[in-house]
Amino acid sequence: MNIERPKPTGRYIVGTRLFTVNTGVKEILPGHTDEIRRLSCRIWYPADPEDVKGRKKAEYMNRHLAEAVKADYDKSTASGENSMECYADAEYEGGKYPLLIYNHGYTSYKETNSFLCIDLASHGYVVVAPEHPYESQATVYDDGTVIRKDTSITKRCYEPMIPALISGMKLLRKKGTDEEVCRAFDDYQHKYSRFMIGRLDAWCEDTEFVREYVLREYGDIIDMEKGIGLTGLSFGGAVSYSLLRKTEHYTCGINIDGGLFGEYEDTTLSSPFMNITSEEHRNLVTGAYIDAKTDVYAATFQEMKHLGFADLKFFIPKHVGKLPPMVLHENLCRCHLMFFDKYLKGEDVHMRISEEKVSLVRR
């Protein structure tokens, strides 16, 4: 099947490479406590256009990840479809660019939103995506080491599963003020998702290790004048929110259709934030709109399902919503670029979208 991938819209050619962050911290996930947590990361960046001449485009999905998600690696590689719109290990273009850190969803993988990350890099950003081992489909390190997903953790995300699903459906339909809906979500996460609350802290710690490593090893290409931005899909979006509320290391952040898990008593959202959600997930993010001391935005995409906010939108027709793939992609990139251009590049941006299926407003 021919998949027409979106092309980067910025003026920069994009390079990419893998690197590993050894946290030095002992793993706390049951069954793995004799290991040190190591993070495989992918970086996208503006590349030297002369250096990429004659290079092949970077591989979209390695064999191990393809096996994990049941994709046909040999077929897609032979057809030329297994490639990204960027170049592996290309030289840097020169200059310095703002840093964005992207976190994937729970049990997903670091390239889940590669189309978005590549487009951001083409507009003059350095984008780094860490992968969280055992909680991603298949973590492949730059030395060739592979860690598969721990299948036992999926059952722990919502316990007990059937009551959690029923209560979750009721939560999505609940009517009320932001405060009322937020209290209902908080009751839900404490009753059914305490495991996820605990894993949020671990992923935030992972992100902090990555931030420190990138500033140390890639500082020559990072523009820190206005700070660092965060974005993430699903659980990765909750990481953005948590880090903004609990640390001072980040300037602004975006959540892509994720429930805002976590404990936030005695904290304040004081850095600009955006929720990008499907209509059905709006009740999972109202905590960001209560008592915020900053600019907070709500971008709502109609006719969308949760899985459709990733590259998957271009590959499968079901369970991703009816919004056309390019409409989703163009507006997802548009929301990100407007937000980060305003808060990381200091540009005068009118933060509003009003289209038939997509809206962006300040709350």
Summarize the structure.
With 363 residues, this protein is α/β, with parallel strands linked by helices. 29% of the residues lie in helices and 21% in strands. The strands form two sheets. An eleven-stranded mixed β-sheet has the order 3-1-2-5-4-8-9-10-11-13-12.
Q: What would you say this structure looks like, in words?
A:
The structure is a single chain. By secondary structure, the protein is of the alpha/beta class. It has three domains: 142 residues, 3-Layer(aba) Sandwich (Rossmann fold), CATH 3.40.50; 35 residues; 138 residues, Rossmann fold. The protein is 29% helix and 21% strand. The strands form two sheets. The chain has an eleven-stranded mixed β-sheet with strand order 3-1-2-5-4-8-9-10-11-13-12. The longest helix is centred in the middle third of the chain and has 24 residues.
List the helices and strands and how they pair.
Blueprint: E1 13-26, E2 36-47, H1 63-68, H2 73-78, E3 87-88, E4 99-103, H3 114-122, E5 126-131, E6 138-140, E7 146-148, H4 161-173, H5 178-192, H6 194-217, E8 228-233, H7 235-246, E9 252-256, E10 273-278, E11 296-301, H8 325-343, E12 353-354, E13 358-362
Parallel strand pairs: 1-3, 4-5, 4-8, 8-9, 9-10, 10-11
Antiparallel strand pairs: 1-2, 2-5, 6-7, 11-13, 12-13
